[in-house]
Amino acid sequence: MENNPTDNPTPPTEKSEPLYAAFVQIRNAELAAHWMRYNTQFAINFGLLAVVVMKAKDSFVSAHLHCITIIGSELALIWLLQAVQSKKSMNKWEKHLQIYEDTIARPEHRLFQKVAAEESKKSRFLRNWQNLRLFALALPSLCLIAWVLVFLSNSNLLSR
After folding, report:
1. Cα–Cα distance measured from residue 103 to residue 25, given in angstroms and rounded to the nearest whole number
2. What's the CA gap between 69 and 152, in Å, rounded?
3. pTM, to two decimals
4. Are 48 and 75 in contact (CB under 8 A)?
5. Rounded distance between C-alpha atoms, residue 133 and residue 24, angstroms
6. Helix (H, G, I), strand (E, B) or coil at 160
7. CA distance 110 to 132
8. 49: which residues sit within 8 A by CB, 6+ positions away?
9. What SS3 class is residue 145?
């Protein structure tokens, strides 16, 4: 049996549209998971930091402040590393989508290619500012610095 063009009536681009939709869904699910993890870490870190700052002198927190500050700084570091890794993962999926768009997709499905072209025209600072990348890394960094300051003030190292 010969492989004639009439044997395959569906063009390759129509067969690949569900693949494109799957790529977009995976990328969007990764984005939703990133912000869910980010918001959870925000609530945990700043909630624990607020408890430490508002502590009573004879409370459990005051008695175990050294241990709590170590745990808090570890949580802030985990949050920072998680934010960096999530951004890398989202960038990976966006690159997969761009590769797909370059090789298979129809012109109307070239969303990420168009966005990448627009983004490349902006400065690196502006691009990161508008994508909330700087903000997403600033909060965990500030929280980590706050935990270090609480630890140092508890250890009386700042008063010297």
Report:
1. 19
2. 9
3. 0.69
4. yes
5. 20
6. coil
7. 23
8. 72, 143, 146, 147, 150
9. helix
User: Which ranges of the chain have pLDDT less than 70?
Assistant: 1-16, 105-116, 124-125, 127-132, 156-160
Q: What is the residue whose two structure tokens read 């935990």?
A: 147
Query: Would you state the structure tokens that stand for residue 37, as one six-digit string?
Result: 């993890």
Fill in the amino acid letter for 137: L
Burial 102-133 (b: 16+ CB within 10 A, else e): eeebeeebbebbeeeeeeeeeeeeeebeeeeb
Three-state secondary-structure class, residue 104: coil
Distance CA 99, CA 95 (A): 6
pLDDT for 102-127, tens place per residue? Answer: 777 666 656 666 666 777 777 766 76
User: Do 108 and 17 contact (CB within 8 A), yes or no?
Assistant: no
Q: Among 131, 115, 100, which Cα is nearest to 18's?
A: 100
| d(C-alpha 11, C-alpha 8), whole Å | 7
Element (H, E) at 79: helix 65-103
